[in-house]
Amino acid sequence: MEVSLKQIQHAEIATISGIELSAREEDFAGGSMTAIAGRLKARPNSEDCFPFLIMADCKIAGFLMLRKGQALPDWAAPDAVSLHNFRISGNMQGRGCGTTAVARAARWIATHWPQASKLMLSVNVDNFAAREFYLRCGFQETTESHNGRLGVEHIMSCRVSDLMRKSL
User: Fold this and answer.
1) 159: domain range?
2) What is the Cα–Cα distance from 153 to 76, expressed in whole angstroms?
C-alpha cells in the first residue's frame, strides 16, 4: 500500500468526508472535521497550523495536523512540532497506514522545519489504543500531563530523526 501526505488548505478541512470512525474515536481525535475547521478558523495564529490528508493508494485514509511556532500548545517544547487530530479511517486501521503516516510527517518536518528536533503530542489517558500505537511508533511518555478537551492527557515525544527511520 502506498501511503502519502497531501497538504490541504484550511478551508478544505470541513469538506473532508469518508474517514470512518466510531463516535468515541472521533471525540479522541478532536471531534468532527467541521469542528476542527471551526477551531482552526478561530485561532489567531492559524498560519502556523498545517493540515494534511493521509492518502493510501490514492484514497483518503485519514487526517493529521502539524503545528509549530506560535500555534504550539503550552505543553510543547519550543523546538518541537506538535501533532493534532490524528485519525485513520476504521477500514484502514491495523494495516500500517498510521505508522507510515507518522513517518511521512517526520520526513516533512525534517524537510520544511529542520530546526525542529522532536514531534510531540498529547493523548487522553482513556485512549489506550492510541497510546499503544504511539509507543509502537517510537514515542515516549514524558512525565507531564495536562487537562484537554475530554480530561487528562499524557504528553508524548519522539525525536524527528527516530521517526524518520520508520519511513521507507
Assistant:
1) 3-164
2) 13
